[in-house]
Amino acid sequence: MAWIYILIASVFEISWAVGLKYSEGFTHLKASVFTVIAMILSYIFLSLGAKNIPIGTAYAVWTGIGAVGTAVYGILFFDEPRDLLRIAFIFLIVIGIIGLRLTYKTS
Hints:
Layout: H1 2-23, H2 29-49, H3 55-77, H4 84-103
Helix pairs in contact: 1-2, 1-3, 3-4
């Protein structure tokens, strides 16, 4: 269940990161409220996942999924650069996330 919590936390991390863009510096009320709620939920689920997963692993996976998801969202919806080198480095983050998950040992 801990890994499910980390995945949920990561979805909320992507949500709040994207919400920052829509809030435009917290000047749009609805987007700002959404962003803050997503931040809180992200941290709650991260803390639940970190109960049973080492914090270094949980945090790295959480931020990695958040970074990849936010970058992909930016490429798809904000017309951010999609050059090959950028995609390659995003892919390397994915490889790191997979590696951390595969090398995780239960106690």
